[in-house]
Every structure is written in structure tokens, then in C-alpha cells.
Amino acid sequence: MAHSALSNKSFDFIIAGGGTAGLVLASRLTENPDFNVLVIEAGSDRRGDPMISTPGTFLQLYGNKKYDWDFKTEPQKSENGAVHCWPRGKGLGGSSMINFLMYSHCSKSDLNIWRDLGNPGWGWTDIIPYFQRIERMHLPSDPTRTALSTEYIQPSLRGTSGMIHTSWQSDAFSWAQETWPKQSKAMGYPTSTDPRTGTSLGLFNQLTCVDPKDGTRSYAATSYFVAAEGRKNLTVVTESVVKKILWDTSGSKPRAIGVEMETNSSTIQVQATKEVLLSAGTIQSPQLLELSGIGDPTLLQTHDIPLVVSNPSVGENLQEHPMVVLSWTTKPGHPTAEHLRDDPSLLAQAMDTYAKTGGGPMAAAVTTTGFLDLHSVTRPGTDWSALATPDTHLPQRQLDLLMTQLEDKKEAVYQVSAIPSGNTPSLRGIGNSAMFFHSVPGNYFSMSCGLMHAFSRGSVHIKSSNVHDYPEIDPRYLSHPMDVELLAHSLFHMKEVVKTPPLADFLKDASDGSGEKEFMPGLKPFSTLAEARELAKERQLTMYHPTGTCAMLPREEGGVVDTELRVYGTEGLRVVDASVFPMNVQGNIMSLVYAVAEKASDVIKETYAGERKANGVDGTSH
Ligand SMILES: Cc1cc2nc3c(=O)[nH]c(=O)nc-3n(C[C@H](O)[C@H](O)[C@H](O)COP(=O)(O)OP(=O)(O)OC[C@H]3O[C@@H](n4cnc5c(N)ncnc54)[C@H](O)[C@@H]3O)c2cc1C
């Protein structure tokens, strides 16, 4: 549809943001031919762009405004003013279009905590069917099963006919991938089980969102959107920005009746007869609420935005997975990413293999990951409960639940990952691509430890009434002392891991006789906890998993949406994306974003099922 033809047109549902969650909604809602749906997406349709579809090019997308909003955080007080780049996907598919393709899973306890926070219907058993519905898992070939030790997966727990392809590469296994599960055994970690069982510890090679048919990225635009694309009841406009929600304030509650949007340099209004659904993500869904008059009255007044609903919780409760990375020098003869950097003929060969077969190194994403509990990583003797200090940004109930998970021997406190490549965290404020594509001569291996349940809470708020002004993002990284201590301990543990064979056999010994492995140049040695704390502050990075800014919680406990994801105090308005997570969960969160959107689609369909019957559409009585 021509953008101009949209003006004053009406739809049953308007979805603001055609990202990960937005395209699930679009696809599922238009299964009902009676629903007329409009999706408005700020970015472009990048299907077919090899930079997106080739798994091996993802690290080059960050900071490129063609694909990435390229947000920056506020200077972080607890990190001597450090600024972090926060990439977010801009285009059909949103962040699923640019992410690392890792297909992970939350724990049973993570979701039961959601339920216990006042969200009946959102516990483990409630959400599991949606995980099944999302996934189309491809069994590994025999060489893959042997090389990557994939036997921990229980196929019976997995979806095999869903929208998102999950698989492992079929060739070009790296020494790091083959060694990783063996390292788990050598460290005495628990034997890995399928994360779908609800608990999952140890190191393993996880699934990635790659369609093995041609080795391409499987994401919201190539799956959910493709399934719905030809439907007459779906309209998708790209390169168009939702500016704010339109209201009817004549009833007892303000009702969302459409949106104001900018398209082709003009501003138009489009009507929604049933609902407006915000799926603009953790940064921009709260931005749109505030621009539309829902938020803290003082903040809205500062920006001359008329108050529609007072709710100071909008944009609060921001949570992330902070992580630290260490890198070591590899021994000669073990290929790393730097070999591709330094030898253009190797890169050309990899590209050629990918073009001809859809395989080779360019078809591989990161698989080497795992989860560890507190006691597997930290040094004995720390009084963790003494570090659980109250914080005005962290509700006491959340603090208590965080402590329960921290002390639970079955729960992951850390996600540990590895890649055969160096990393330069000092460039965290310059760009994520620059950090990975470092220019330090030599070959390296990196390991990271990320906190699954951070204690620090931040916020996202508008800086002006203009949708084009990026909001103020303040994760308040490491503002809680627990996070600093947990990361500091993990730095010591990583040093122990790399000193243990088989991994130790691939890394150079330090030349100073210390018995340590040789760090990548520029990395400061540390031997005391005080030094490790400082290093954690210098090297802490984003894991790209912000959540929680439009939390599904009781309103008096910081909630923005209820258990049907309706925005408190309004009618005809829901938020469906990662911003509704009340508390962050273990692992890479995309699978849960898909699951939340699948469940939301069911809830919305159910809301109007009665209406269809009442209208006699199903041939039933009035
Ligand atoms: C670099 C990176 C790596 C990651 N790696 C992984 C990984 O390997 N595995 C994993 O599980 N998770 C990963 N994640 C996290 C995961 O991808 C996201 O949490 C998830 O995709 C978020 O989905 P969403 O629907 O909440 O938001 P998004 O998918 O970001 O969708 C929001 C959409 O709204 C659009 N939008 C915003 N504002 C407006 C507006 N005003 N008007 C119109 N459109 C608008 C945006 O352009 C975007 O398309 C990663 C994320 C990033 C950024």
C-alpha cells in the first residue's frame, strides 16, 4: 500500500514495531481473516541482504545505521564514566535480524518467579507449549553429533514444526567447539542436560537460529512474516516511524484509537478500531508510552507532554546481563578469527564455500556456551548475604528472589561463553564491531562470564518530546555491589578454566613463570580481589539483553502492564516485547521474546473470540 493511502485509514490492530515480537503478533493475528492488521516498522525489509542472512557476518552489523539503531548509554557512574554501545535491530525482524543467532532457554525457576510476582498464567508449565510452537529443530548429522557432543539435547522436548529453524553447523567445527564439552567434564561441572528440562548447568554447544537447508539466518522476518506476507488482512509499512498514540479520552479510561506516524517525510494519523500494540522493544516501547502521555507526570511536564495516565514505573526496572571477557594468546596451529582477518585468501575461500554450499565457517554462529551455579565459580568464604544490600531501584521482593536463585545449586548464576578470537573491551564505547575486529597482532581465545540475574536496576526515559531524539539509557551497571563481586570472582575462575587441559593445551603459557596463561596484550594481570573488582569495572560489557522497562507486575509493585499485557489505566493498548519481562532470565532471551509474543497472540485472539461469536461470524447464536 502506498504510504499516502494509509492516512485516516482504520485497522483492527496497529502494531508499532515490526521486530521480533511484532512480527509474531502480525503473523498470528492475521490467521484470523476477520482481523485487519497494520505493522509500522522504522527500518527496512532486509531479507536477502547477505550481511543479514550469512551467519558469519553478524559482528559487522553493529554501529551501521542501515541495520542498527546504535544507541549509547549514559556515562556509567560505577565504571568511571564509561559509555556502552547498545545495538538494537532496525528493520523487519528487529533485533532478531542482527543478533548472535544463539538459541538459548530460561530456567523453570525463572518463569515460576514471574508467576509468583503476581502473574498467574506465566509460570513454567504455562509457557512451555509456546517454546514447542516456536521451534523447528533439525537433528544433527553424525559428524556434528560427534564433533559438538550434542547428545545432551532431548529431541522429544523440542518443537519440530515451528517457525524458527534451530540447528548446528554441519562442518567447519573449530577446536574450541570440539574442546568445550570436554572442558566441562575436566572441570567437574554438572553433566549438561537439555535446557528444556528446566535446569541446565555445564558447558555445551547450543543450537543456533540457522536454516540448515541453505545455511541462512532464521529470524522473525524470514519465518513469521513470510508465513503471513500474502494475506490480504496484513499491511506492513517500513521506513515509517510511530510518533505517538492517539487517544479518545471521553470514556472512564483513555482509549488508544490509533497512532500518529511519520512516513515519507509527512505526518499522518491512522486509526485502530480494536487495539494499538507496542512492540518497539525495551528502549522504544517506554519511549512511545512517555511520548504519548503515560509516565511520570514531572518528566512529562518537563517536555510539555499532556498527561494521560500517571505511572512513574514506565521506563524503570531496566535489567541487563552484564558480562566480563578475558582473552589469551593461542599456540600456533590453532585457527582463530584473526587468521581470517590476516589472510584475505582464507576469507575469500570461506565466502566461496558458503556461496557454493551454504556451509563452511561463514555458516557457523556461536555455539560454545553454558551455565554455572554460584559455587562452581566463586571462591569459598564470601558472605553473599552480607552483599545483598537494599537499593532504592531494586524492590525488596526482587532482592529476596534474587538471593533465592543465587543460593540455589541448580540455578545458573553465570552464562559462560567462548570464542576463538580476541576482544578489546576498551573499545566498548566506540563500537561493538570494533571490539571484536581488533587490530592487535596475534591470535587469541576469549572467554566471558555474564550475570544471569543482575542486582543493578536502571532506567530508560525520554530526553525530549521528539521521537527522533534517542532516550536516555542508564543501565546503572555495577551500581549494586553484588554485581561487582560476582563478576570479580568470575575473572579468577576463568583463569582456572584455561589452565586446565584440554583447553590449556591450546593456549600459550605466560613467559613470567607465574603458571598462568599468556593474556592478550593490553590486558592487565590481576591477583587480588580488589584488582579483579577494578578490572571488572574496566572490562564489563553488554550481553545485549535489556528487559523490564514496561514490566508485567502488579501496578503498585512497579507494573506497567497486567497479565494480559494491557497498559494499566488505559483501554485498547498493550505492550508485547522484551520490555514486559518483570525480571530477567537465564541465557539469550530471544526464545522467550518469541514465546511471550505467541502467548500474547493467543490472549488477544481469545479477547475477541466472544465478539466473533456475538456477531454470528461463526454461525453461532447472538
Ligand atoms: C547485538 C545483539 C545480539 C543479541 N544476541 C542474541 C542471541 O544470540 N540470542 C538471543 O536469544 N538473543 C540475542 N539478543 C537479544 C534478542 O535479539 C532481543 O532481546 C530480542 O530480539 C528483542 O525483541 P523485541 O521484540 O523486544 O525488540 P526488537 O526485536 O528490537 O524489535 C523492536 C522493533 O521496533 C522498531 N521500532 C522501534 N521504535 C519504533 C517506532 N517509533 N516506530 C516504528 N518502529 C519502531 C525497531 O526498528 C525494531 O524493529 C541480541 C540482541 C542484540 C541487539
Automatic annotation (TrEMBL):
Keyword Flavoprotein: yes
One protein family per Pfam: GMC_oxred_N
Residues bound to FAD: V242
Gene3D superfamilies: FAD/NAD(P)-binding domain, Glucose Oxidase, domain 3
UniProt cross-references to InterPro entries, sorted A to Z: FAD/NAD-bd_sf, GMC_OxRdtase, GMC_OxRdtase_N, GMC_OxRtase_C
Glucose-methanol-choline oxidoreductase N-terminal domain ranges (all copies): 281-295
Gene Ontology molecular functions: flavin adenine dinucleotide binding; oxidoreductase activity, acting on CH-OH group of donors
Cofactor: FAD
Record's keyword terms, sorted: FAD, Flavoprotein
Family of this protein: Belongs to the GMC oxidoreductase family.
Name the record gives this protein: GMC oxidoreductase
